[in-house]
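Mods, move this if it's the wrong board.
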Amino acid sequence: MRLSIIIPVLDASRTLPKTLAALAGDDDIVVVDGGSMDDSADCATQLGACVLAAPRGRGCQLQAGAEAACTDWLLFLHADTVLDRGWRETINCFCAKAENRARAAAFRFALDDPSPQARRLERMVAWRVRWLGLPYGDQGLLIHRDLYRAVGGFKPLPLMEDVDLVRRIGRARLVALPVAARTSATRWLAFAQRAQSRLPWSLLSRRFAACD
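Not the wrong board. Structure tokens:
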């Protein structure tokens, strides 16, 4: 089974090669560039991806990628996220069940950092997913084209486009996949460090639960 993997990029040449290397196979990989100043587009082309240009902003880029995709199943993935081994088998099992055409799925959130702080952030995100049904875009989103269209797809929003779509899908139609989507910890740990200087961990966890 082929699927379309849509990756929005903006100056992502440092992380994109590793992301694409984990996707080796016969899938339809669509990289949507939002005006990179580095060689992200050339890097994607050299690694076999189809490269499109779109207005800057993940909402616009993801929307453009979905429109260009050529398969029934869509996987939206960030350019600094690497899927762990076993992701393909897990997706095949999910997609093989006819009832999952009316559901969407996200991978388990993980950071590529060994620190205790990274593990705390992972637990916060796991809580958010389990109790609020709000996975982050860093966890990827697997969805059948029919459901994607039925809920209105990605909107051209400058921020929180993933939260907007997931809320329209609804918690009851979201499935947590057991394989990890391992994301670069740089941005996450920097945000947590800034926030922790103002908030204790108990309050910071609430912020992670509510915000993107």
